[in-house]
Amino acid sequence: MKIIEIEGNRNLTGQVRISGAKNATVALIPAAILTDEEATICNVPEITDTTALCDILELLKVKVNRSTESVVINPQTMENVEIGEEYSKKLRASYYFMGALLGKYKKAVMYFPGGCSIGARPIDLHLKGFEALGATVTNEDNKYIVEAEELKGANIYLDIASVGATINIMLAAVKAKGKTVIDNAAKEPEIVNVATFLNNMGAKISGAGTSTITIQGVEKLHKCFHEVIPDRIEAGTYIIIGALCGTDFKVDNVIPEHIDSLLSKLKEMGVNLEIGTDYVNVINRNEKLKATNIKTAVYPGFATDLQQPFTVLLTQATGKSKVTETIWENRFMHIPYLRELGANIEIKNQTATIMGPTKLKGAEVVATDLRAGAAMVAAALLAEGKTTITNAEHILRGYEQLVEKLTAVGAKIAIKEI
Ligand code: UD1
Questions:
Q1: How far is the centre of ligand 1, averaged over its atoms, from the C-alpha of 271 (Å)?
Q2: Is the pLDDT assigned to residue 53 strictly greater than 80?
Q3: Which atom of ligand 1 is the closest one to the Cα of 370?
Q4: Is any ligand 1 atom within 6 A of the Cβ of residue 233?
Q5: CB atoms near residue 86 (< 10 Å)
Q6: Are strands 344-348 and 293-295 parallel, antiparallel or unpaired?
Q7: 191: closest CA among 219, 165, 158, 159?
Q8: What is d(CA 29, CA 57) in angstroms, rounded to the nearest whole number?
Q9: Ligand 1 centroid, distance to 412 Cα (angstroms)
Q10: Residues 6+ apart with CB under 8 A from 255
C-alpha cells in the first residue's frame, strides 16, 4: 500500500502546471482503436489510469509507444480478444472499450468496469444506446457480450445526461450506417475533446458540447495527431489548495471557462483571485472567507469531482455552509476523515452542513476514493502537524506528479510504500 505523509501549515507559493485531463485521456485512448492507422495523442498525463488503459491496448495486440506526455497508438496488428476482469476492474473508463470495439468489430467481450466506489454506477444507459444501434447485449456473471450484425444510426434519448454513456454511444456510432442523434447528451468539455479527436480522424460529429449530438456514420477513420485539454478537476483542486494555504500561487495551463462554476463560488467566498487567459493566480489567503452553499450538477454546474476538495475550503469559512451532492449517492466518505482532522460537519441525506471556521490538526486518514483523497491532501496541507493518508493509490489514479508539483511550491510531502 502507498501512503502520503504531509507536514502541514506551510505557506505555498510559486507555480503549478496542470496536466492533460484524465477524463478526456481515458476516452481518447480506447477511441484511438477506431482507426486502422496511427493516432498520436499528446499532453497525456502519467497517471495509473493511463497505464491501465495502455495495458488493455497491449492485451488487444495494439502497438503502443509511450514517451513523456505522448502516446502513439497503432492498431494495425490488433486482435479483438476478451478483456478479462483483471483488466476491466482497474478503472471505470475501461468501459469505453465496449463502444470502441463494438464500433470497430461489431463485437465486444469484457467485464463490468471498476473505479471509485462513489455510488452504484450502473451502465444501463450505455447498453440501451448500443441496443438502439442494433446490438444485442448478453450479461453473465459480470461478463458482457455486446454484438451486432450491423450497426445502424438511431435516435437515442438519455434519461440522464451521462458522460460515459454519451461518449460510449459516440464511439459505437461513429462507423454505424446512417445518422445517430443523442438527445440529452452530457456537455462536459471532455466530450468535446473526444468528438474533436474523432472528427480529426474523419468522423462526422456535430453538436458536441450541447445537449444534442449528431453523428453521421463514416466507413473509415484515418491517422491523426491530437492534444488532450487541460484537466479542469486537477486545476480546481490546486486552486482550492491555493485558497487554503497559498500566496502568489499560480495555477497554469488552465481553461478558466471550464471551471466557471468553481471560480464564481470562490469569488463569492472572498478568495483573492487573478484570472488570466490560461491561468488562475491565488494572490493570498483570505482569513475571513464567507460561508456558501453548493449543489453538484452536470456541466456547466458545480462539478461533483470538485465537491470533496471544496468541502475542505468550506471548513475555513465563517458560518454555516451546505454541500448537496446530486450525482453520486456515496460521495461523502471524506467527511468522517475531515472530522478526524477537526472539522465540524453533519450529514443528512445528500447534504453536508459545515460549521466554520475550524482549525485543522494532523491525523491518520484514508483516501477512500480519488477525489476524497485529493480532499485529504488539501486538508493535510492546511492542518497543523503531520497527516498520514493511507490508500494513496487512489490519488495517483488521477493526479500526475502530485508530490513533485506540491514540493515545488513549498509543501512538505512524501510518498512511501508500506
Ligand atoms: C464521469 C467521470 C467522473 C464524474 C462523472 C460525473 C470519467 C471517467 N468519469 O463518470 O469523474 O464524477 O462523470 O461528472 O469521465 N448513470 C446511470 N446509468 C448509466 C450511466 C450513468 O444511472 O448507464 C448515472 C450514474 O449512476 C450517476 C449519473 O448517471 O448518478 C452520472 O454518471 P456519468 O455521467 O455516467 O458518470 P461517469 O461517466 O461514470
A1: 30
A2: yes
A3: 11
A4: no
A5: 11
A6: unpaired
A7: 165
A8: 8
A9: 34
A10: 189, 229, 230, 232, 278
126 touches ligand 1 (CB under 6 Å): yes
Domain at 22-227: CATH code: 3.65.10.10
Of 124, 128, 327, 333, best ligand 1 pocket probe by most atoms within 8 Å of the beta carbon: 327
Q: Where are the domains of the chain?
A: 2-19+230-417, 22-227
Q: Catalytic residue positions?
A: 116
397 Cα: distance to centroid of ligand 1 (angstroms): 17
Amino acid at 90: K
Q: Is the pTM of this model over 0.90?
A: yes
Residue 117 confidence (pLDDT) above 80: no
Beta strands 272-275 and 279-284 are: antiparallel
Ligand 1 pocket member 119 (CB < 6 A): yes
CATH number corresponding to 2-19+230-417:
3.65.10.10
> What is the DSSP-derived secondary structure letter of residue 219?
S
Question: Which pLDDT value is given to residue 180?
Answer: 98
- Residue 165's alpha-carbon distances to 30, 53, 120, 234, in angstroms, are 14, 18, 15, 23
Which amino acid, 407? T
In the structure grid, which three cell numbers stand for residue 31, read together? Answer: 477511441
pLDDT tens-place string over residues 184-207 = 999 999 999 999 999 999 999 999
pLDDT digits (tens, 9 = 90+) for 119-153: 778 899 999 999 999 999 999 888 999 999 999 99
Q: What is the Å distance from ligand 1's center to 162 Cα? A: 5
Q: Cβ distance 4 to 415 under 8 Å?
A: yes
Residue ID of nearest Cα to ligand 1 atom 22 = 122
Nearest residue by C-alpha to atom 4 in ligand 1: 305
Residue 413's CB: how many other CB atoms inside 10 A? Answer: 21
3-state helix, strand, coil in the chain (%, to 5): 35, 30, 35
Amino acid at 171: L
For ligand 1, atom 31, which residue shows the shortest CA distance? 162
Whether the domain at 2-19+230-417 and the domain at 22-227 fall into the same CATH topology: yes
CA gap 236, 280 in Å, rounded: 10
CA distance 109 to 34: 16
